Description:
The protein is of the alpha/beta class. The protein has helices spanning 7-17, 33-49, 62-66, 78-87, 100-104, 107-118, 140-150, 169-177, 181-188, 204-207, 290-312, and strands spanning 2-4, 21-25, 53-59, 92-97, 121-127, 131-132, 138-139, 153-157, 161-162, 165-166, 193-197, 213-216, 225-232, 238-245, 256-261, 272-282. The protein has two domains: 2-165, HUPs (Rossmann fold, 3-Layer(aba) Sandwich); 192-312, Riboflavin kinase-like (Elongation Factor Tu (Ef-tu), domain 3), CATH 2.40.30.30. It contains eleven helices and 16 strands. The protein has a six-stranded parallel beta sheet with strand order 1-4-3-2-5-8, with helices on both faces. A six-stranded antiparallel beta sheet has the order 11-16-13-14-15-12, with helices on one face. A two-stranded antiparallel sheet has the order 6-7. Helix 8 (169-177) runs antiparallel to helix 9 (181-188). The longest helix has 23 residues, at 290-312.
Amino acid sequence: xxxxxxxSAAARFLTQDANGSxxxxxxxxxxxxxxxxxxxxxxxxxxxxxxxxxxxxxxxHPEAYFSPETAPARLSSLGERVVMLQKLGVNIAxxxxxxxxxxxxxxxxxxxxVLYDQLNARCVIIGDDFHYGAGRRGNGASxxxxxxxxxxxxxxxxxxxxxxxxxxxxxIRHLLQASQLDEAAHFLGRRYQMMGRVTHGDxxxxxxxxxxxxxPMRHRRALKGVFAVRVSGLDKEYTxxxxxxxRPTVGGGKTLLEVHLFDxxxxxxxxxxCVDFYAQIRQEQKFASFELLKAQIGRDIxxxxxxxxxxxx
Length: 313
């Protein structure tokens, strides 16, 4: 899969290697089963037309640009989205920086310049809640009108419904915040996961006998607490216990994901790993002393091991 941060860069690639494209547009936060259904439909149209499939998305999320203080927590980072899109057969991921210029573009110009001139769209797949352009004044109807004039197809798909309501990133976010990880996994089509490169920490866990993999989190996430997890990306898959939070007992400030793996003795610094969340063990809390924290970590490990023993049985 090719990855671009501008439509002009994607346009140069398309001019060299393709006679048009099939484009689907959205934020794709979490790439849940609703997104997957839209990507599957777009992939089928791309195969029908024998054209590359382009995903057009945005980073940061528009809500984070307009209202950074009240924007919802992310389900996935940019890197996680790109990895999941690649697994789903996308040929080109074009993730545009959402800034003042993009926020101000009128919907007519967006269709003409971005979709028609640069991406040479022959077919565009959108969801039923699709809006675009300055003030969100563009919608499925206006896109279809423009497409008729410019000579490309538009297909607007209905929402994926589960248990009587629409599958959405908002719904999954609420499930995660309520620690309903099994239910969230159902709507995601997989376990909720975080990916990242292991960095050096303060080594406090190692001195206590609980060495951890440390993954910095750049953006606020919907989860917080201590969890039973599985980790892939090393020599094999491992189970473990993870703390996702600010580590108040040791005076931490930034959000960090710390993972203690059971039966792992290697050096994982610099490795890119994927952490799948299975069950919450407890909420993050501040302890009166390091000794009390250390004792609690021991109990967390016992609970996590017991969870996986029961699950695997």
